[in-house]
Amino acid sequence: MKKITVLAIIVCCTAVVFGGDKRFYTEKPGPDVFEKMTPSAQTEVALAEEVMAKRMAYRNELEKIQSFYEQAGNQLKLEWVQKELKWLDAAPRYRYILQAEVAGDTLVATVNIPRATALYNEGMELYNKAYLSPALFGPPKSVLFGASKKKLRLAMAKFNDLIKDYPTSDKIDDAAYMCGKIHEYHKDYSIAVLYYKRCFQWNPDTSLAPRYKAAKLLDYQLKERNEALKLYKESLIKEASHENYRDEIQNRIDALEAEPEDVKID
Predict the structure, then answer these.
(1) Quick one: CATH architecture of 99-264?
(2) Confidence grade of residue 99 (pLDDT, cut at 50, 70, 90)
(3) Structural domain boundaries in the chain
(4) CA 187, CA 77: separation in Å to the nearest integer?
(5) Taking residues 107-126, what's their average pLDDT?
(6) Are 69 and 81 in contact (CB under 8 A)?
(7) CA dist 215 to 35, 172, 221, 240, Å?
(8) How far apart are CA 184 and CA 156, in angstroms?
């Protein structure tokens, strides 16, 4: 009897300590505001903009404390802040709302707009600098260390601003192509394909080779061989000026067409 009484007391005490009912064991915490949200374009835009704003605020605060330690002469903490700023610059920062996605596939690259051309040239200058060697006569920087990710990000910002601010410019297709190259460098293959597609959608007669570039990524990286085959064939016809690719494209078309259908299924 005493054992039963002691056991009952222990059970009661346990129930009191842990909240007094079975909900402690069975109920999950209620959903927060993010779980309650209905996925929509407006929600995505709002969240993406908030992320960008907080990134900028974080960087501004780091720069403030850097200035404080510079004035205070605290070399140790100044080095800490500078390292953190360096890491922040090196970290990938995606525009979760891609300009190529927002703009859609119906834009037409037609109008010569000087400011848009200037933006494109600024982006190209940054892009080229990203690959330059700091040494006067050394090999290209990309051979030794890869490209400067910071400069590539700044270049892509210029190209995206061009697409956003001057959607009728005759440079939007070129800007999309360059964004594709930058995302390909970062191994963001699906995003790179989107930008390459926008290039030839906005200007079907582009002098570049976006169909070929998209086809290669779809083929070798994303394993979407049916779509890759279609774009290889289009490239062979519409990007004929790129003679260096013709044999490679034809050989790959022949190889893909020889594969069983179940191998090519996306």
Answers:
(1) Alpha Horseshoe (1.25)
(2) confident
(3) 1-91, 99-264
(4) 35
(5) 97
(6) yes
(7) 37, 21, 10, 15
(8) 12
